[in-house]
Amino acid sequence: MPLSEFKEIFKKEYEQYCILLDKAQSKQQAIMENDIDELAEIVSYEQEIIELIEELESKRHSFLNDFAAEKKAADTEFSFAELMAFMPEEREGMQELKADFLTVLDQLQQINEENKQLIEDSLKISEYSLELIRQAVGKENVYSKKDKSDSLRQTNHIINKKI
Fold first, then answer.
1. Angle at which helices 91-137 and 3-32 pack, to 10 degrees?
2. What gap in Å lies between CA 20 and CA 109, rounded to an integer?
3. DSSP assignment string, 103-161
4. Distances (CA, A) of 121 to 23, 114, 130, 160
5. Are 87 and 3 spatial neighbours (Cβ–Cβ below 8 Å)?
6. Which of 21, 111, 132, 139 has the smallest C-beta neighbourhood within 10 Å, fewest atoms?
7. CA-CA distance, 102 to 29, in Å (whole number)?
8. Integer Cα distance of 113 and 118 in angstroms
9. Angle at 133 between CA 130 and CA 135, to 5 degrees
């Protein structure tokens, strides 16, 4: 089993994570602009990317298991350093790719944490706004059956259709 196959899978996986990072940055902008349609589109596209990443990750693990079975005990996985021992001519390039990969993963985690915080803050603002509206309207149920005894009672509304 050629090690170039591992390199190709690893490279494709890295490229997909780069795309995912770009989409996470776009998602952050959509969150800040409150662009729900754009956000939905980005999340849908992210799901496609994640499915592709999962497929590539599965291929990578399968390759490593097969390679381990060829070279040593089948129940042992190779570390990256052990694998590089079989690829001396590719060692520098692969280590650079691994470092870039880890950087992208760190950036992705950072942006996802920021996005999570933005969403939580947005929800808190929405909840606060709804609470203010509830307080302004009062505790009276606006959508209830009216009976004749309630016809004289005045309801406080934020929006009044009378002009």
1. 20
2. 11
3. HHHHHHHHHHHHHHHHHHHHHHHHHHHHHHHHHHH-SS-SSS---GGGTT-----SS--
4. 21, 10, 14, 31
5. yes
6. 139
7. 24
8. 9
9. 110
pTM listed for this prediction: 0.75
User: Distance of CA 103 to CAs 9, 11, 36, 73, 106, Å?
Assistant: 18, 14, 29, 32, 5
Query: 25 near 111, Cβ under 8 Å?
Result: yes
Helices (H) and strands (E) in the chain, counts: 4, 0
For residue range 76-115, list pLDDT tens digits in order. 667 788 888 888 888 899 999 999 999 999 999 999 999 9
Find the length of the chain.
163
Check if the beta carbon of residue 14 is closer than 8 Å to that of residue 100. yes
pLDDT tens-digit profile of 16-50?
999 999 999 999 999 999 899 999 999 999 999 99
CA–CA dist 21, 108 (Å, integer)? 5
